[in-house]
Every structure is written in C-alpha cells, then in structure tokens.
Specification:
The protein has 1 helix and 10 strands, in the order H-E-E-E-E-E-E-E-E-E-E. It is mainly beta and 151 residues long. It folds into 2 domains: 31 residues, no CATH class; 82 residues, OB fold (Dihydrolipoamide Acetyltransferase, E2P) (Beta Barrel).
Length: 151
C-alpha cells in the first residue's frame, strides 16, 4: 500500500463519523484513529436516563411555565445537536442562573455534525433558569434558557 492510497482513505474518513479504521493487506497494515475535542469527558460520567425521564417530543405548550410573566423570554435551540454550557470541559460555563447578559452574548454551544455553534442571546436581561443539562442532546426549538428581559 502506498502513501497515495493512505491519503485517499484518510480523506474519505475525514468526511464521515468513523473514528477508527484498520486495513490489513498482503503488503502491509494501516490503522487510522482520530479523536474529538469533546469525546473524553472523565469528569462527567454518562448514565442512562430512567424510563420515566426518557426524552419526549417537545411541544410549544411545554416551552415555558403556564403563568409566565410578560418579561420572561425563552431562548430555544436553533438546531438539533448536543448542548454544552462551556467552550471546553475545563472552562467555566458561559452563564449561570442569575447572570446578567447582553444582546449578542454567547450563552452556550450546540455541537452539530462535529461543528461547535455558539448560541447568542437576542436580548439583554438576567438568566432565570437553565433548562438543559450539560452534554444533553437537544432538538430544534427546544427551550434552553429563561431570561428575564431588562426594561
């Protein structure tokens, strides 16, 4: 197997979700393994959800409490992906409950197809609640934050 073949295999693997590949032939053996910045999360053990708490379809009625004050706005997920509160596992969260935010301030990251997409607040105010756990999958339109809008 020559370098040209190895390069073409690598190029193909870069465009897929395959993390590890091994090929053995008469003239040699090739093993390619690649990683992901968010793949190793030793500090956050992953546990399966109990059946009663399994993810369910998000409806518009579920987006906010029934008696929501007029000055509370909901920040929703702009895409399907994985919710992260900080830019890396060691870094502090972008915001906490009680944080005062400005318009265009980053609130979280949604990872979709190996791309990290920053979610910005569209208005200024104070974070009242964070509705999603770090590392949790989210759907398009799913509520992420409640923000008390500044007057």
């Amino acid at each position: 197997m020559d370098i040209k073949d190895i390069k073409s295999i690598y190029k193909f693997l870069r465009e897929t979700d395959i993390v590890e590949f091994e090929l053995e032939g008469a003239d040699g053996k090739v093993r390619i393994k690649r990683g992901n910045a968010y793949a190793v999360r030793e500090a956050m053990p992953v546990e399966p959800l109990p059946p009663a708490e399994a993810p369910r379809e998000v409806k518009k009625e579920d987006a906010a409490p029934a008696a929501k004050p007029d000055n509370i706005k909901v920040v929703t997920s702009p895409m399907v992906g994985t919710f992260y509160r900080s830019p890396s596992p060691e870094a502090p969260s972008f915001v906490e409950v009680g944080s005062v935010v400005k318009a265009a301030q980053t609130l979280c990251i949604i990872e979709a197809m190996k791309l990290m997409n920053e979610v910005e607040c569209e208005f200024g105010g104070k974070i009242v609640s964070i509705l999603v756990e770090n590392g949790q999958p989210v759907e398009y339109g799913e509520p992420l934050f409640h923000v008390e809008v500044s007057k």
